[in-house]
Give the backbone structure.
Amino acid sequence: MQRGSALLNRQLSAAVTGLRFGEIIVIADAGLPVPPGVATVDLALTNGIPSVDAVARVLQAELVIEEVIVAAEMRKVNPTVSASVDEVFAAAGTRVRELPHDDIEALLPTAQLIVQTGETTPYGNVLLVGGLDFFALGMADGD
């Protein structure tokens, strides 16, 4: 479920609007292989632009996110993106789950969309799992 409308990229905005509970959008580094049949928005311009951090900040503001999934290897190998994930998602109260990189790759064919960035650091992939805002949908009474 989309929160706002600050996205300028038409394809990305449509995917965000259509994201349902439990569905996955992947913020991918430049080297992530995209499985056949998975929709992709390639935002990569050059080395590091846009970064995973920049895309994560926009999507965090636009989406209701149930959880974020990252590679367990990220904490050790890529402390910059790991710290960004903590700052953007964990600090906002979103659960961050770590899985082995091979398990992340196994989830890729189920993604609704892969957003390719210019990120060139290792294990720079962040999976966003769609959530629901029960209050906005009138499914909760606020008590």
About this structure: The chain is about 30% helix and 20% strand. The chain has a mean pLDDT of 90. The first strand starts at residue 24 and ends at 28.
